[in-house]
């Protein structure tokens, strides 16, 4: 698949269970507002499922959040905005840096780890899916303690910690972010 290829951003299923090795390297987490149901393992001490409506619930102020939201382009923005507002956690997302829903990341994240390899998510029984996720993935840190977790995790990729806002052509997006 080439860089210019078209990839579906609303797939057959929005349930993408986080591989346990990611949680093992980045955890422990206090709160997962959009946990899979069923799931083979918990990603946090408190796990809310779709039935619990994690967006509508209060996120405990001092809790470290794990966020692997539905990858539906119509839903992901709400989750990212909420984590950006909360300011303490890590999100697992597709690297759709050009998407409007990625803007709160550019504006508020403390670091982004662009993963070296595509992920294979897991099934409810814990087995790995046969195909990769179909798009590059990123881990996004909000808060300096989470930047440290990414940096020390040993997860292969490129960690970007600082970027600055630059003006861009008016007929394009109102702003473009460049890496410092």
Describe the SSE topology.
Blueprint: H1 20-26, E1 31-32, E2 46-47, E3 65-67, H2 76-86, E4 89-94, H3 103-108, E5 111-115, E6 137-142, H4 144-152, E7 157-160, E8 163-166, E9 176-179
Parallel strand pairs: 1-2, 3-4
Antiparallel strand pairs: 4-6, 5-6, 5-7, 8-9
Question: Describe it for me?
Answer:
This protein is an alpha/beta fold and 180 residues long. The chain is built from four helices and nine strands. Helix 2 links the parallel strand 3 and strand 4.
In short:
It contains four helices and nine strands, in the order H-E-E-E-H-E-H-E-E-H-E-E-E. It is an alpha/beta fold and 180 residues long. The protein starts with 19 loop residues before the first helix and ends with a strand.
Find the structural class using helix and strand composition.
Answer: alpha/beta
Q: Major sheet: size, sense and barrel closure?
A: 5 strands, mixed
Strand order of the largest sheet: 3-4-6-5-7
Radius of gyration, CA atoms, in whole angstroms: 16 Å
> What is the overall pLDDT average?
85
Helix content: 10-25%
Beta-strand proportion? 15-25%
Give a count of the beta strands, DSSP E runs of length 2 or more.
Answer: 9
List keywords for this structure.
five-stranded mixed beta sheet; two-stranded parallel ribbon; 20% strand; disordered N terminus; disordered C terminus
């Amino acid at each position: 698949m080439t860089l210019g290829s078209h990839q579906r951003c609303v797939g057959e299923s929005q349930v993408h269970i986080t591989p346990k090795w990611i949680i093992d390297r980045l955890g422990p987490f206090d709160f997962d507002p959009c946990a899979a149901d069923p799931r083979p393992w918990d990603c946090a001490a408190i796990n809310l499922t779709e039935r619990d409506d994690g967006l509508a619930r209060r996120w405990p102020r001092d809790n470290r959040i794990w966020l692997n939201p539905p990858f539906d382009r119509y839903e992901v923005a709400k989750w990212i905005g909420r984590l950006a507002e909360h300011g303490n956690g890590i999100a697992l997302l597709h690297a759709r840096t050009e998407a409007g829903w990625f803007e709160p990341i550019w504006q508020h994240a403390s670091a982004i780890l662009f993963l070296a390899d595509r992920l294979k998510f897991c099934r409810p029984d814990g087995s790995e899916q046969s195909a990769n996720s179909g798009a590059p993935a990123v881990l996004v840190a909000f808060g300096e303690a989470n930047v440290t977790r990414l940096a020390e995790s040993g997860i292969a990729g490129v960690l970007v910690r600082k970027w600055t806002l630059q003006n861009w052509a008016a007929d394009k997006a109102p702003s473009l972010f460049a890496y410092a």
